Amino acid sequence: MANRTLGWIQNPSDFNSLQRVVQIFDPESTHYAALRDYLIERYIPLVDIKKSLQEKLDHDEAVFSYFDLVGRSVDRFGNKAKRRALAVGSSLIQVSIPSQSAGTSGKYWTDNWTSDGYLRWAVSLNFVEYLRDKDAYQISQQGLAFSQAESGEERDSILTDALLAYPPATRILSMLSERSPQNKFEMGHKLGFSGEPGFTSYSSDIMTDYLHQAENSGEAISIRTDIEGTSDKYARMIAGWLSKLGLVSSKSTKLSNVYLGTVSGFRDYSITGRGMHIIRQAQGSSSRAKVPKFVMWEFFATTGSDRDYVRSRRATILRLMMNTPTKSFNSLVVALKNRGFSDNPAIIKNDIHGLDGIGIRISTDGITVHLFDTIKSFDIPKIQGQNRTLEKIERDSRKAAFLAKTSLPPRFIELLSIAYESKSNRDFEMITAELFKDVYGLGAVHLGNARKPDALAFTDNFGIVIDTKAYSNGYSKNINQEDEMVRYIEDNQIRSPERNKNEWWLSFPPSIPENNFHFLWVSSYFTGYFEEQLQETSDRAGGITGGALDIEQLLIGGSLVQEGKLAPHEIPEYMQNRVIHFGDLN
Question: Which residues form the FokI D3 domain (predicted)?
Answer without folding.
Answer: 300-365
